[in-house]
């Protein structure tokens, strides 16, 4: 009788970086400083990470989470770390259309125009009116939300009519009304001159908003703790801003021309501009010649990553936890460096958490 060989299924993702809580989904908590193959739940379409955990959304609208769980960020009703994924229990019939992971909490948008939240809640970032950690999903909003943003103790949502709501940490005035006490339920953020929000994201001390007119607005404080100018300057030659992502104290934005913009804190080279000097205004990140336009990107606490149309992945910024993907490092990496991907793999999207990177792979690896 001939031997039948059973080949393992192709990995759905490549992961590396911080793994103390098992958030890489590899079944262990050892450090990982180069791309490692990791399975994902069947049908995964989006992956988001926090400080030490990861959450995936599948095509049918289910959520699965794994990793650290000290604050209930896995949403399973416990505080037990999970080295493999488990389904997040949501009400029967709930279909999740979008998910955003903050540092230690999660926001989920449903097809029924509701927002559920869970996890750490010491600054009111869950939005249920309390400051107690929430171990299970709780509904916090049903005001026609269409987009979400989450950061370090901060949450935000955009409604269908362009209103912006935010809640959580507010010591730097990142919720739009000047420095003050934390906000424990979704509250309106004033937008200037009839502006309408299209997208939002949050860091530690700042909130960044993309308007329907293509402008960018900032709320909160910059790296030195000074109030941020509300209007972010943009050069029309860059193209229109299409998406954005906030790191701890810096921001990345992708334009219609495939240019990646960066500004904010830069002590670890997380702006990718070849130095460690903070920037108060956006600048174009210089990638090596011939890389093609950026198609996907991610901003962590102090590091970043991007994928290009040519199927390449680049990282820059802090490398302490292996998030550079080229081995453990102690020195800041102030320019994009190409990652060596396993043969036959092609990135579909780049995402991650505070200090870990997740590269989901295109179907059949191509």
Series of H and E elements: EEEEEEEEEEEEEEEEEEEEEEEEEEEE
Helical percentage: under 10%
User: Helix tally?
Assistant: 0
What order do the strands of the largest sheet run in, or round the barrel if closed?
2-1-28-27
How large, in whole angstroms, is the Cα Rg? 19 Å
Mean pLDDT metric? 94
Model description:
By secondary structure, the chain is mostly beta strands. It is built from no helices and 28 strands. The strands form seven sheets. It has a four-stranded antiparallel sheet, with no helix packed on it. Strands 3-4-5-6 form a four-stranded antiparallel sheet, with no helix packed on it. A four-stranded antiparallel sheet has the order 7-8-9-10, with no helix packed on it. The two termini are 35 Å apart. Helices cover 0% and strands 44% of the residues.
């Amino acid at each position: 009788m001939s031997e039948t060989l059973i080949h393992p299924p192709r990995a759905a993702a490549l992961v590396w970086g911080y793994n103390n809580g098992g958030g890489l989904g590899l079944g262990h908590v050892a450090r990982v400083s180069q791309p490692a193959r990791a399975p994902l739940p069947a049908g995964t379409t989006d992956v988001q990470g926090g400080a030490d955990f990861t959450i995936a959304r599948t095509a049918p609208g289910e959520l699965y989470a794994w990793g650290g769980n000290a604050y209930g960020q896995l949403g399973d009703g416990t505080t037990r770390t999970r080295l493999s994924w488990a389904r997040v229990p949501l009400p029967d019939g709930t279909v999740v259309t979008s998910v955003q992971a903050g540092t230690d909490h999660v926001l989920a948008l449903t097809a029924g125009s509701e927002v559920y939240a869970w996890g750490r809640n010491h600054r009111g970032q869950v939005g249920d009116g309390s400051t107690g950690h929430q171990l299970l999903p709780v509904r916090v909003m049903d005001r026609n939300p269409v987009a979400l943003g989450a950061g370090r103790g901060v949450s935000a949502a955009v409604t269908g009519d362009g209103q912006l709501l935010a809640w959580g940490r507010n010591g730097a005035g990142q919720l739009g009304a000047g420095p003050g006490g934390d906000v424990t339920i979704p509250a309106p953020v004033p937008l200037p001159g009839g502006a309408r929000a299209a997208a939002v994201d949050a860091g530690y001390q700042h909130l960044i908003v993309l308007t329907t007119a293509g402008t960018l607005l900032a709320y909160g404080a910059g790296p030195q703790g000074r109030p941020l100018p509300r209007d972010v300057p943009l050069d029309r030659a860059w193209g229109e801003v299409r998406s954005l992502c906030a790191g701890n104290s810096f921001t990345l934005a992708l334009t219609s021309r495939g240019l990646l913009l960066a500004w904010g804190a830069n002590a670890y080279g997380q702006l990718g501009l070849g130095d460690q000097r903070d920037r108060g205004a956006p600048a174009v990140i210089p990638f090596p010649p011939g890389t093609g336009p950026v198609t996907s990107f991610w901003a962590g606490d102090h590091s970043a990553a991007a994928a290009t149309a040519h199927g390449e992945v680049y990282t820059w910024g802090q490398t302490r936890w292996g998030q550079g993907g080229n081995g453990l490092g102690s020195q800041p990496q102030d320019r994009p460096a190409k990652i060596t991907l396993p043969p036959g793999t092609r990135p579909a999207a780049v995402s991650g958490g505070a200090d870990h990177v997740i590269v989901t792979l295109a179907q059949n690896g191509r």
